[in-house]
TrEMBL record:
Keyword Repeat among UniProt keywords: no
Official protein name in the record: Phosphatase
Domain of life: Eukaryota
UniProt KW keywords: Hydrolase
SUPFAM superfamilies associated with the record: HAD-like
Length: 256
């Protein structure tokens, strides 16, 4: 922990002034892919909402509730990918922000509770294969479900979690080695929901998408944050901080 070994901390490879960590579902995308599959191909919105409310209220772990959601989707995985490509939209300002980050040596690290094949397929579809090559993506994966060998058959897949934490992917574990450095870049994080709870306290400035569960959590736990409606909001603030025109403390305005 705290080593500057670039293998362990790849976002340091270019000696950046800032690193931008971000959730994928409902943050880079306007809709959450896992929610979309559950609502339209699985057990539906009411049960999904009940599962997530239980997590927010501390009655269930995220890993347990989320796996139950995805296991309700019996559609073959390749068909799920086709459905998502047809229906999931990118935040319209993300590509411009990502291009600015690349031009200004601000690594973008995607930390997702979702599945790697979904993320890579949608990012390639929405921003292009070349952009995906320049993103570090740390996420859970997909695996054959018990009794199956082919994820592309009915009921054939399940989520394979990134770790054994109660979150399924404890995003804070990816961020803490950077935070532990005596001299380190400014660190940003953008998220929207319950899967971002573990990362919410770990960076210098947290962006929480307006109207989503992460805002409720931050207010409840008194975690400093600023709301964003689109990546254009994030772009303005990140650029201002990186250029020294604003501090992260000044930017943490909550719902304002």
């Amino acid at each position: 922990m705290g080593s500057t070994n670039q293998t362990n901390l790849p976002a340091l490879a270019t000696n950046p002034k800032a690193i931008f960590f971000t959730d994928f579902d409902g943050t880079i995308t306007l809709q959450d892919t896992n929610d979309y599959m559950t609502d339209n191909l699985g057990f539906g919105y009411p049960q999904r909402r009940s599962n997530m409310d239980d997590v927010l209220d501390g009655k269930r772990t995220f890993a347990d509730a989320f796996k139950e959601m995805l296991d309700s989707v019996k559609t073959p995985f390749d068909e799920c990918l086709r459905v998502l490509k047809d229906n999931i939209k990118l935040d319209p300002a993300f590509k411009e922000f990502f291009d600015w980050c690349r031009a200004n040596n601000v690594p973008v690290v995607v930390l997702s509770g979702g599945m790697q094949p979904v993320i890579r397929t949608l990012l390639a579809h929405l921003v292009g294969d070349e952009a995906v090559k320049h993103m570090q993506i740390v996420s859970s994966d997909v695996a054959p479900s018990p009794g199956h060998t082919d994820i592309n058959e009915e009921g054939g897949w399940t989520i394979a979690y990134h770790d054994e934490s109660e979150h399924g992917h404890d995003k804070s574990l990816e961020i803490r080695p950077y935070a532990a450095l005596k001299e380190r870049p400014v660190m940003f994080y953008a998220g929207d929901g319950v899967s971002d709870l573990s990362a919410a306290k770990e960076t210098d400035l947290l962006f929480a998408r307006a109207g989503r569960d992460l805002v409720i959590y931050c207010e409840r736990e008194k975690v400093p944050f600023t709301v964003f409606h689109s990546f254009s909001d994030i772009h303005k603030i990140v650029q201002s901080v990186v250029e020294g025109k604003q501090t992260v403390q000044e930017a943490a305005t909550g719902r304002n």
